[in-house]
Write a structure and sequence with these properties.
This protein is 34% helix and 12% strand. With 104 residues, it is of the alpha/beta class. Helix 2 links the parallel strand 1 and strand 2.
Length: 104
């Protein structure tokens, strides 16, 4: 398991693109980029690495503009609203998803 954090969209895109063949899955909290970044969505779709989008807060219960995620459609799932526990739930789901996939 590796952790990576950046507030720079291009660094996040580069990290995602570099994940192909290097990792089995991605837990991703795109923060405010959730609602604005076509580049992050495109990168997730390009690598075909299963990804779970994670948010500490329930974005659907916040401001109206936060209800739409551009990145969620490129992910196998989305977990939000449980604070730090969201990461544990997302990781459990991602691991189960990876384990249940047919072998290549």
């Amino acid at each position: 398991m590796e952790a990576f954090q950046s507030d720079v969209e291009g660094e996040l895109v580069a990290r995602i693109l570099g994940s192909r063949g290097a990792v089995d899955g991605i837990l991703f909290n795109p923060g405010a980029y959730t609602h604005t970044s076509v580049a992050l969505r495109d990168a997730l779709q390009a690598v075909s690495v299963p990804c779970v989008e994670v948010h500490l807060s329930n974005t659907a219960a916040r401001e109206p503009f936060r209800r739409d995620s551009l990145t969620a459609a490129a992910c196998v799932g989305q977990v939000m609203g449980f604070g730090a526990l969201s990461y544990y739930v997302a990781l459990a789901g991602l691991v189960e998803h990876i384990r249940s996939r047919p072998a290549p």
